[in-house]
Write a structure and sequence with these properties.
It is built from twelve helices and twelve strands. The chain is α/β, with parallel strands linked by helices. The protein has two domains: 175 residues, 3-Layer(aba) Sandwich (Rossmann fold); 127 residues, N-(1-d-carboxylethyl)-l-norvaline Dehydrogenase, domain 2 (Orthogonal Bundle), CATH 1.10.1040. It has an eight-stranded mixed beta sheet, sandwiched between helices. The relative contact order is 0.12. It binds NADPH dihydro-nicotinamide-adenine-dinucleotide phosphate (NDP) and ketopantoate (KPL).
Length: 310
């Protein structure tokens, strides 16, 4: 089997490391030729919960190299999904499936429009990973993988993916309900990511302070209200307990949104808390905590150049 990991960031590198246990062919697709050359020369390193160095990494910026791939693992931020579609759409072969490991709403729809619903899989995961330098990912939180297909079917490909992840020793489940898969993670991200990015706390500390805990719980409770009104059946019963357990399991992780803010990059706020606010508005539900988090993160994103230096 051949897998293309699209995006050599925190999650893409971690998946590369985990997949190495399966002995399948793994190719990394980058968009940046200088970084691809650096990783080809220096290799990839995973630190933290796994300590491993991989030399001889197959890495390219040329998507044609993936034309015979069975799976394309999309590991870029939501704001880069369109750029990935542009880069790979004419190179995904008839046998190729797209697997999005991304957080947030909207990615599955964009990928389904480009590749067809039956060829798109959503893989939500609570794994925690941080890019410490180019080519180095710190595996900072254990997590499972839940797979759902955009067309709701299970299909042979989902079972193949389940076997693949079982070989990596990750707990993996399949679901016929992609909305449940998406919202079960979206609600958790709504509580953790923006709060981490504003407070600059690791996930484990968010629930330790009264103020950040109250904001996280407020955002989660609002998001849950929206999911309930949309009759989404979540994959767990207690949303606050689930968020707490994700924070504990990924205690040392720098959330993916805090990582963006620290690198002065755009964030996934529109796809996470922004999506909650938009859906709530159309249902006449008030989500003041999520709206406040959107305003704060949008301000941070647009004012990196004006930040006060100490
Ligand atoms: N990190 C985590 O703990 C978790 C992350 N996720 C989700 O996984 C997704 C990826 O997150 P994460 O790995 O943290 O993000 P990173 O920003 O660390 O990595 C994304 C990588 O993709 C690269 N990239 C962007 N566009 C393209 C493209 N067109 N082709 C190839 N590479 C591209 C980026 O390059 P450049 O930086 O140069 O733009 C970067 O190297 C997000 O949706 C996130 O929410 C889910 C669970 C946990
Ligand atoms: C699971 C968690 C919260 C890990 O940090 C994540 O999804 C993220 O950082 O985007």
């Amino acid at each position: 089997m051949k897998i293309v990991v699209v995006g050599p960031g925190a999650m893409g590198l971690l998946l590369y490391g985990l997949l190495s246990k399966t002995r399948h062919e793994v190719l990394v697709l980058d968009k940046n030729p200088a970084r691809a050359a650096l990783l080809a020369k220096n290799g990839i390193r995973i630190e933290g919960l796994m300590n491993a160095k991989f030399a001889d990494v197959q890495i390219t910026t040329d998507a044609t190299a993936g034309r015979d791939a069975d799976f394309w693992f999309v590991c870029v931020k939501s704001y880069d999904t369109k750029s990935v579609i542009r880069a790979i759409s004419s190179h995904v072969g008839a046998q190729g499936f797209i697997v999005s490991f991304q957080n947030g709403a909207g990615n599955v729809e964009l990928l389904s429009d480009a590749f067809g619903e039956s060829r798109v899989v959503l893989a939500v995961t609570n794994l925690g990973a941080t890019l410490t330098e180019e080519g180095v990912s710190r595996y900072a939180g254990e997590g499972d993988v839940i797979l759902g297909r955009a067309d709701g079917s299970l299909g042979a490909e989902l079972k193949t993916l389940r076997e693949l992840f079982q070989k990596t020793k990750l707990a993996v489940k399949l679901s016929r309900d992609i909305h449940a898969v998406l919202w079960s993670k979206l609600i958790i991200n709504a509580g953790i990511n923006a709060v981490a990015a504003v407070t600059r706390l690791t996930n484990g500390r968010i629930m330790a302070y009264e103020g950040s805990r109250r904001i996280a719980e407020g955002a989660i409770t609002e998001a849950h209200k929206v999911a309930k009104r949309k009759r989404i059946k979540l994959l767990y019963d207690d949303v606050l307990a689930k968020a707490e357990s994700v924070c504990e399991a990924t205690a040392e992780n720098v959330s993916s949104m805090l990582a963006d803010v620290l690198r002065k990059k755009p964030t996934e706020i529109d796809a996470i808390n922004g999506a909650i606010v938009r859906q709530a508005q159309s249902l006449g539900i008030k989500t003041p905590v999520n709206a406040l988090l959107v305003d704060l993160i949008k301000t941070i994103e647009s004012s990196y150049a004006q930040e006060v230096e100490v």
